[in-house]
Write a structure and sequence with these properties.
By secondary structure, the protein is an alpha/beta fold. It has eleven helices and four strands; from the N terminus they run ββαβαβααααααααα.
C-alpha cells in the first residue's frame, strides 16, 4: 500500500541583512493547497513590494505542479512590483518543475500590440539576423555534406544502398501519381486560358508553342519541385527530427557512425536521382493535358498538335528543365536535413521545423529557378 505524506507545509521566515530569507519545508502539494495559500499570504505580508526575498526549498519533501505554480506566481507578482525573488533548492527535480511551470504559466504579462516604428525596425533587424544565421548554418552544413559525400565515395562500403533504393521508391515511385495528376490539370488550365486569349487575335494555333515551351522550361520542374518540397522534404524533416527527439542520432554518434553519411547523404542522393525523372513525367503529363484541351476547345487535332510541337520544341527546351532539377533537389534535401537536425525535444518544435522546412524549400526553389532563368537568358540558351 502506498504511503501518504502527512508533512504539513511550513515556512520559517527571518530577516537576513535586508533580504527576507524563507526556509520552506514539508509537502507543497495539491492536497495541502489551503495551507500553502496561507503561508504565501503570510510571506507577502512580511515582504514589502519592492524588496527581495530568498526561498529555500531544500527541506521540501514533496513539490508538485500546484506548489510550483503558487511559488511561480508569487515570484512573478513580486517582480512586477520591482522586487526580486530567488528560489533555490539542492534538488534538481525542483528546478526542473519550476522551470516547466514558468514556461507554461498563463499569468504572464500580455504582449503589447501597439504599432510602433521601433517594433517594426526590431522585427526587421531580427529577421536579418535570423537570415544571416541561416545562411551561415547552411554553409557549414553544406561543408559537412560535402565531406560526408567524399567519405562515402572514398569508402564505398559506408554507402547505404538499401536506404537509397528505399528513398527513391518513396520519392519517385510513390510520388509519381499525384505529380502526374497535378501536372495534367495545370496543363489543361494553361492551354484553356491560352486558347481563350489567343482566339481574340485568331492565333489559337500558337497555344502549342505557349504550352510546350512553358511546360518544358518552367512549369514541369517548378510543379515537381514544389510538390517534392511539400511531400518528401517535410517527410525528411519529420523523420530526422523524430530521430533527434528520441536521441537516436546521438546513439549513432556513440556507435561511431556519422549521421550525415547514414541519414543525409542517401536522402539527398535519392532526391537528385528522382527529381529529374519526375520532372520528365510531369512534363509529359502536362503536355497530354494541354493537347486534350487544345483538341476540345481549339479544334486542334492530335496529329496537328504533335506535328507543331515537334517543329517548335527543340532539345534545349527539354534540357533547361532537366538541368535545373538536380540543383533544386539538392536545395530541398539540404534544407529538409538542416531543419530536421534543428528539432528540439518537443512535438511543438517538430511541427515548427517541418513548417519552416517546407516554406524555406519552396522559397529557395523559386529563387533558384529565377537565377537559372537569368543565366539561360544571358547565354541565349
Amino acid at each position: 500500500m502506498a504511503s501518504v505524506d502527512t508533512a504539513e507545509p511550513q515556512a520559517i521566515i527571518r530577516d537576513d541583512a535586508g533580504t527576507l530569507a524563507v526556509a520552506l519545508a514539508g509537502s507543497w502539494s495539491a492536497d495541502r493547497a489551503p495551507r500553502i495559500e496561507e503561508l504565501v499570504e503570510e510571506i507577502v505580508e512580511r515582504l514589502p513590494q519592492a524588496a527581495s526575498a530568498r526561498l529555500d526549498l531544500s527541506d521540501v519533501t514533496r513539490l508538485d505542479t500546484l506548489g510550483a505554480y503558487v511559488l511561480n506566481r508569487f515570484k512573478a507578482r513580486q517582480m512586477r512590483h520591482g522586487g526580486s525573488i530567488d528560489i533555490v533548492s539542492d534538488k534538481p527535480e525542483h528546478e526542473i518543475l519550476l522551470a516547466e511551470v514558468h514556461v507554461h504559466d498563463e499569468d504572464k504579462p500580455a504582449p503589447h500590440h501597439q504599432f510602433r516604428v521601433v517594433d517594426i525596425l526590431v522585427n526587421i533587424g531580427e529577421g536579418i539576423v535570423r537570415f544571416g544565421r541561416d545562411m551561415v548554418g547552411g554553409a557549414m552544413f553544406l561543408g559537412e555534406v560535402v565531406v560526408g559525400s567524399a567519405s562515402v565515395v572514398l569508402g564505398p562500403r559506408k554507402f547505404r544502398g538499401p536506404s537509397l533504393v528505399n528513398q527513391i521508391e518513396l520519392i519517385a515511385f510513390n510520388g509519381a501519381p499525384i505529380i502526374m495528376l497535378i501536372s495534367f490539370l495545370v496543363g489543361c488550365i494553361v492551354a484553356q486560358q491560352g486558347i481563350f486569349q489567343l482566339q481574340q487575335f485568331g492565333a489559337s494555333a500558337f497555344v502549342v508553342n505557349l504550352t510546350g515551351i512553358l511546360i518544358l522550361r518552367e512549369l514541369a520542374v517548378l510543379l515537381t519541385s514544389i510538390m517534392i518540397a511539400g511531400r518528401s522534404g517535410s517527410a525528411f524533416t519529420a523523420e530526422i527530427g523524430s530521430m533527434k527527439m528520441r536521441e537516436e542520432i546521438d546513439a549513432l554518434r556513440v556507435m561511431g557512425l556519422d549521421p550525415i553519411e547514414v541519414l543525409v547523404v542517401p536522402r539527398i542522393l535519392a532526391l537528385i536521382i528522382s527529381l529529374p525523372i519526375l520532372t520528365f513525367i510531369s512534363a509529359m503529363a502536362g503536355l497530354v493535358g494541354a493537347g486534350l484541351v487544345a483538341w476540345l476547345y481549339g479544334g486542334i487535332g492530335v496529329d496537328t498538335f504533335l506535328a507543331r510541337l515537334q517543329s517548335v520544341i527543340t532539345w534545349k527546351h527539354f534540357a533547361v528543365g532537366l538541368i535545373k532539377a538536380p540543383f533544386m533537389a539538392f536545395v530541398i534535401g539540404l534544407i529538409a536535413s538542416i531543419e530536421g537536425l534543428a528539432v528540439k525535444g518537443s512535438a511543438e518544435s517538430l511541427g515548427r521545423q517541418v513548417t519552416a522546412s517546407v516554406v524555406k524549400a519552396i522559397f529557395m526553389v523559386i529563387v533558384v529557378d529565377g537565377l537559372f532563368a537569368m543565366f539561360f537568358a544571358s547565354i541565349e540558351f
